[in-house]
Amino acid sequence: MEGMDILEEMGELTRRGQAFALATVVWRQPPSSSQPGARAVITADGELHGWIGGACAEPVVIREAQRVIAEGTARLLLLGTPDQFGGTVPDGMTVIPISCQSEGALEIYIEPVVPLPHLVVIGGSPMARTLASLARALGWRTDLVDGPDFVTDSADERSMVVVATQGHDDEDVLTRAVAAHPAYLGLVGSRRRGATVLGYLADRGVPQQELDRVKVPAGLDLGKTTHQEIAVAILAELVQLRASGALPGSGTGAGTRAGASAKPGRRKAADRPAEAVDPVCGMTVATASSRPLRHDGADYYFCCAGCRQAFEQDADAYTKKETRC
What is the predicted pLDDT for the residue at 101? Predict the structure, then answer.
């Protein structure tokens, strides 16, 4: 996969609202098999589409890409032995030793690609149309749907949903919206009207913890305003919540379900793959993608078959030396 195929894959992931990372080779030292300009797309689940290098480089890039996605910060990697770069490595670069039967080296830039915010506005009033228009002006992925046309699958845990049906089947629409578990759920209306709607849903068995997540009235409290200004107040609240990191699951595909304790875009340590150091070359490898070799009661993991073979031929030479990081 290269060229237009990479762009199409990026477009498809973006349409699905999935976070991913784009890795680009910006420099190589022969005999590395990659070339400057080579690209690959890596998903939060560790799927790699494209070509970024051979057996040594690929697992490192996947692991670092997952960290980039989780942290939301780009990273520049230098893959090779430290002495290949001497004292010229600039601050901020990450040097990862690779010495698997190759003296080649790679410099790879990995950048996160965060999905566009997804806003679902339910209703057909001038306020609803204004809100949708303002969100689109910000570049957000915005759906404006009538109440009867809204179904639970219209939103997910990364979506922000604003119910602006204004008395037209508010209860039924809000029931379907609650079931979607969106990152934000707001109801346009007075506090009194909101209390009535939420009380109705509580009487029909909707869990109180789900109802507590409904913001009524939606938007910042700007006092007495026009319908157009209500739209501005709602959008301002959404922007504020996103900027503060208070919307679980709305930032990236690696986010957590709404209501969880982790901040959006952050994966808990327990969710990250277990890692081990290759005793031959010093690389850090994901244990899930490497078949362990048992020696003297301990499991050892390897980045490639070459390192595994070298260990099998003289295991004591590697178990007695200090591992390199």
Answer: 54
The span from the CA of 274 to the CA of 258, in Å, is: 26
Question: CA–CA separation, 111 vs 65, rounded Å?
Answer: 8
- Residue 324 confidence (pLDDT): 41
- Work out the pLDDT band at 103, boundaries 50, 70, 90: low
Residue 208 tokens, joined: 């109180």
Instruction: State pTM to two decimals.
Output: 0.63
99 or 120, which is more confident? Answer: 120
DSSP symbols for 273-317: PPEEE-TTT--EEEGGGS--EEETTEEE--SSHHHHHHHHH-HHH
Distance CA 239, CA 237 (A): 5
Whether CATH 3.40.50.720 fits 118-244: yes
Name the token pair of 297: 């009661």
Q: Where are the domains of the chain?
A: 14-113, 118-244, 273-319
Is residue 149 a contact partner of residue 178, using CB atoms and an 8 Å limit? no
HSE of 19, CA atoms in CB hemisphere, 13 A: 28
Backbone φ and ψ of 96, nearest 5°: -120, 115
Structure tokens at 259: 């209501």
The pLDDT of residue 289 is 67
Average pLDDT, the chain: 84
